[in-house]
Amino acid sequence: MDYSQTDGGESLSGALGSRRAGILLHISSLPGPGKIGTLGSHAYRFVDFLHAAGMTVWQILPVGPTQADGSPYQSSSVHAGNPRFISLEPVIEEGWLDELPLEESSFSDNGRTFALSLAWEGFKDRASDEDRAELDRFCAEQGHWLDDYCLFQALHSEQGGCWWEWLAPLRDRNPQALAEARARLCNQIQYTRFEQFLFFRQWFRLKSYANERGILLFGDVPIFVAHDSAEAWSHRAMFDLLEDGQPRAVAGVPPDYFSETGQRWGNPLYRWEQMEEDGFSFWIERMETQSALCDLIRIDHFRGFEAYWEIPATEETAVNGRWVPAPGEKLFKKLYEDLPHLELVAEDLGIITPEVEALRKSHGLPGMKILQFAFSGGADNPYLPFRHTRDSVVYTGTHDNDTSLGWYNSLDDAERVQVDNYLGRSREIMPWPLIRCALSSCANMAILPMQDVLGLGRDHRMNTPGTTEGNWQWRFRWDQVEEDLPERLRHRVMQYGR
Hints:
It catalyses: Transfers a segment of a (1->4)-alpha-D-glucan to a new position in an acceptor, which may be glucose or a (1->4)-alpha-D-glucan. By secondary structure, the chain is of the alpha/beta class. It has 18 helices and 12 strands.
């Protein structure tokens, strides 16, 4: 059977044209010392686990620098990497940082920053000519975003608050004020360049290790940009902002499955007409960076490229918004013209109209099928496995859902019987019947959250949409991984031709 064809006869090329299975686990959820996971030894061990389990995809969440709430979907840059992911192990091995007097798990974020600042001093004193040249090349190649980002970060430290609260000449990017700031903050700017150099160096080494073992990295690009970000500050003409830097309206979604009042994300909206006039260069540069970091990319909130939910900035909830058309057709045509090897997946959840579906299909983006959504309603539910198509990515659940065990246990008796009847009343304990259902789907790609692979309950949920407390903190432990788990997964993956 030719698995490279969709039900509609359209060809799926590249990695998306093969039957694959993978695991969803963000970098921050890796085990190890420190407050969150890093790109250190535990990341490599996880790649080995994926390989042993027969998986060929590692899906992650956005990897940009996070803000106070820790959400990877509210980053201070669309290009930069999260410096909290930098592992101190290889920095010590390079000889740029002495052994730490304390375990890394004792470090606060300030402690890690202090350690990295010591590494910068060590680099200046002891780096080889080859490493210095590599840093210079990185700064030159990434200068189109790196210079503004480093200045933005330095000003953040100096000025405090958000960029629209800075002194007007800095807020409005007065050339003389910026030149003076670059001279005044030169040391901080150089350090931040080094910090990003470390992130990208460690990232690409991990990516090479994964690719050599047949593992593809599956990234995630949020549609919108955080208000307090280097891009909103340095590309103000591209955003719907008032003269004082405040948004006229903000992004979100109307009431849906996740929230009765919708979700008010608070991101500034784009001036799409300005982006189109500029040849969508903002998006082309953004996707160039992300396609270098990852082999596959999920486009979050894909429906917002056809029409987005505009909420007046004065509204406290997302209820009183309106749909506004977006130039998605022109954007994706331009992206594929300039970046023909992009492999994109559409996050097409929520209120999906025929127009959104047409936009996705016209550019050959697979959509998402969530099994936790499949068992309500009747036989016309599009998430039911028999309604999947090959140009899909099937999930038991996502980072925004409860774990599959938590979801199953929360069902009432009638709902649980309905799920059991559909899945065949397997002798396997939940969530394995749902995992088997995902792997057996005709969808070309099946993704399993790590929580489901480990059989964990609702206390291990990653995110609850519409809330701001207690999210993005989950991490797994290696002692939760049973010895035979890789073999059990590999058996199922092979059984279903992935």
